[in-house]
Amino acid sequence: MNTILKNILSKSIGAYINLLRYLDPIKATHLAYQFFSEPRDGKLLEQNLPSLLLAAEREMMVLENQRFPVYTWQGNEKTILLVHGWESNSFRWEPLFPYLQKTGCTILALDAPAHGLADGKEFSVPTYAACIHEVVQKYKPQIMIGHSIGGSACLYFQNRYTSLSLEKMILLGAPADLSILLDNYAKLLGLNSKVIQLLDDYFLARFNTNSAAFVGQRLAETIAISGIISHDEEDTVVLFAESKKIEKGWKKASFIETKGYGHSMHDPNLYQKIQQFIVQSY
Predict the structure, then answer these.
(1) pLDDT at 232
(2) CATH number of the domain at 50-177+215-279, please?
(3) Chain-centre distance of CA 242, in angstroms?
(4) Is 209 helix (H, G, I), strand (E, B) or coil?
């Protein structure tokens, strides 16, 4: 019943935005972007943080007057940066954490804008990548691991900023193309093609990128470091084919396929392989 009600509400919102496009295109664009960019889940409460995050050193960094937390678990001079996905937060890495600790590396994790303990209500890949850039400039990690849209943000970050400290990157269940995200969003709300074009134009004006430019294979072609791309066959949130697109462009990455772990990808065998990949040649 809840699913039915959510679908009815989504379609009603979409119908309103479709109508509003004829009456007030600017307002329709802003409303469509608001629903696309505002996560409904993934926030944390300061007074109820899980023990993993309480055990870390925490720093609040600032980007454009918005704060976002960076958690640090001290280790050796090698540093791993963890980049979570949509409607999630830094706690999502708990199942991977024991494997990362075995590497001896220092571990960093950040909460994306509008997620975890970060300020704001709006999320976008370019803004997330800018937050990653702030962290990388300060801490200069050698390894970066991104899950879901966090993986897309990692890919966009390295294409846009090209960190010289970064040696390895691992993408887990990452969507490749902005056009796929927009299409899925349009289907969920029942938005017509003219509204989606308005939204695409808005992305271009605000972030200097749109669905034609944000193509995973093209972004991956510029990545010179080594890496792992992994995706679960049974992922129902991001299609398996998305990671295969990234693989086509990223020549120095190996592909690891999992099965039965869905979008979360909390697979012990995969995590062991990630651990081994991190410590190779160190």
Answers:
(1) 98
(2) 3.40.50.1820
(3) 14
(4) coil
> pLDDT for 162-180, tens place per residue?
999 999 999 999 999 999 9
Q: To which H or E segment does residue 210 belong?
A: none
The residue written with tokens 């702030």 in the block is 134
Distance CA 269, CA 191 (A): 41
Q: Are 97 and 268 in contact (CB under 8 A)?
A: no
Tell whether the model's pLDDT for residue 275 goes beyond 90. Answer: yes
Asked whether 157 and 126 are in contact (CB, 8 A), the reply is no
pLDDT of residue 7: 73
In this structure, what token pair is assigned to residue 223? Answer: 């990545």
| Dihedral sign of CA atoms 254, 77, 91, 152 in order | negative
89: its two tokens: 């937060």
| Sequence-separated (6 or more) residues with CB below 8 Å from residue 43 | 89, 114, 115, 116, 117
pLDDT classification of 1: cutoffs 50, 70, 90: very low
Identify the pLDDT of residue 3. Answer: 63
Rounded-to-integer distance, Cα 144 and Cα 93, Å? 13
| Rounded Cα–Cα distance for residues 222 and 226 (Å) | 12
- Strand-by-strand arrangement of the 76-83 sheet: 57-63, 66-73, 105-110, 76-83, 143-147, 168-172, 226-232, 253-258
